[in-house]
Amino acid sequence: MKLFPKWGLCLCAVCLTFGITACSAENPNGSGELKADQTEETFSQKETDTEEITMQENTGTQLTDLTVISRNTDYTVYELTFERDGMMIYGELFYPDQKSPTATVIIGHGFGETYQSTEDDAEAFATAGIAAYVFDFCGGSPYSSSDGSMTEMSVLTERDDMEAVLDGLCSCTFVDAENIFLMGESQGGFVAALLAAKRPEDVRGLVLFYPALVIPDNARAQFDSADDVPETSRVFGMTVGRNYYTDILAMDPFAEISVYTGDVLIVHGDQDSIVPISYSSQAAEAYPSAELVTISGGGHGFYGTQLEMACADAVDFVVRHELSEQSVFSVSEVPEANIIGSSACRLSCCAGLASVAVLTVAQFQRD
């Protein structure tokens, strides 16, 4: 029997060597041994690492830490407070009956009102499976459950209150920090718009009900300069401090809020005598991406069917704009190098073995 020709032996050696090298690259242990469950082990390790990271991130407030106020068919109401500059911010969380983190809407009330004036909005969101947080601004009204006095309040202090709420909710395990929306009514809408402009990367979308963007113009109509503003003033029968006007006397509200480039929904009544709808029309033009919905016959505040329509628009907006849940693992996440290495390993080994087989058969036929 004759030995294999030298070129055949060289071909076998090259194919086998390349195959073993590819296998070794795929298996860092250097054995060159293929493991059938290697992909599964990689995913298992990746899943373990992800769980550890998630546990590290989710060390904030949990639902079980909160006091239950009431339970309803579709949601539960919890008491949840935050703090800003040593002052307590009282609020209530309307949370849908589900275990996973959910999109959350932070809702700010209007001038001289309390969180109770926005409960209808929160109920609409919670019934639709969206969490909502309503709260009292510090010094937001004489009846506020939060700390602070109305003589210390302005749209800027209320913006800081809402920012403290935003930061607090982001640390809660039951909130999807990638899906937080801001909403506000009247002055609360102005406040929400200012915060969205300050923290655009943290605000998924913005909903404004008859936002009181008229406040700076009202201030300028009364005072020519900050020096003219008295220590206290009366607004809608309530006493406010000097900073209520001085904080916004020189402000261009449309220049301020247009910094936010996310999507915005503005809902305004065409019969609003306190904040003319023209202010919302101008805001819709100032924003890069905004939709203005007009409530026919609506004044400064919605009730009955008008409120139902406005809430339905708000819920639809959030549903359309919240980020959809993405699977943690997918085929596309398998490193391309591993796929290529695996293919090269198998093909090269097969080529080397095939070469041996062909040469063996040829040798026997020759003999």
Could you describe the 3D structure shown?
The protein is of the alpha/beta class. Helices cover 42% and strands 19% of the residues. The chain is built from eleven helices and 13 strands. Strands 1-2-5-7-6-8-9-12-13 form a nine-stranded mixed sheet, sandwiched between helices. Strands 3-4 form a two-stranded antiparallel ribbon. A two-stranded antiparallel sheet has the order 10-11. Helix 1 runs antiparallel to helix 11, helix 3 packs across helix 10 and helix 4 packs across helix 5. The longest helix is centred in the C-terminal third of the chain and has 31 residues. The N and C termini lie close together (6 Å). The C terminus is likely disordered.
Count of DSSP helices? 11
Helix-strand string: HHEEEEEEHEHEHEHEEHHEHEHH
Helix content: 40-55%
Sequence stretches where pLDDT stays below 50 over 5 or more residues: 14-18, 20-58, 326-354, 356-367
Instruction: Evaluate the radius of gyration.
Output: 32 Å
Count of strand segments: 13
Shape: globular
Sheet/helix structural class: alpha/beta
Q: Order of strands in the sheet with the most strands?
A: 1-2-5-7-6-8-9-12-13
| Average pLDDT for all residues | 82
Percentage of residues in strands: 15-25%
Largest sheet: 9 strands, mixed
Cα end-to-end separation: 6 Å
